[in-house]
Amino acid sequence: xxxxxxxxxxxxxxxxxxxxxxxxxxxxxxxxxxxxxxxxxxxxxxxxxxxxxxxxxxxxxxxxxxxxxxxxxxxxxxxxxxxxxxxxxxxxxxxxxxxxxxxxxxxxxxxxxxxxxxxxxxxxxx
Length: 126
Description:
With 126 residues, the protein is α/β, with parallel strands linked by helices. The chain is 47% helix and 19% strand.
């Protein structure tokens, strides 16, 4: 799957260049993002601004991707979802468990807040 990658100081913005994501494409995206868990800055903002449709199973794969990132203590925020794409996530009962923002800048804010929260919790545990 063709994606644009924009690396920032605290996170990486991944923007699929496709208008539709099938289950096979979502699996490829999952494989592409898997190595971010080992990077020094593992946090991801998935910008879906180019997406006009998504397969139901692909939506579940993306939701599971977010879960995998959070389980490892990494941020994964989705932004700029068009209404028809958001409806697929809503109809699959995934919206409530996912971190979704209307804009990329709000996604950046969430990643940075979560980073601060992780630092505070780490200092609290010590």
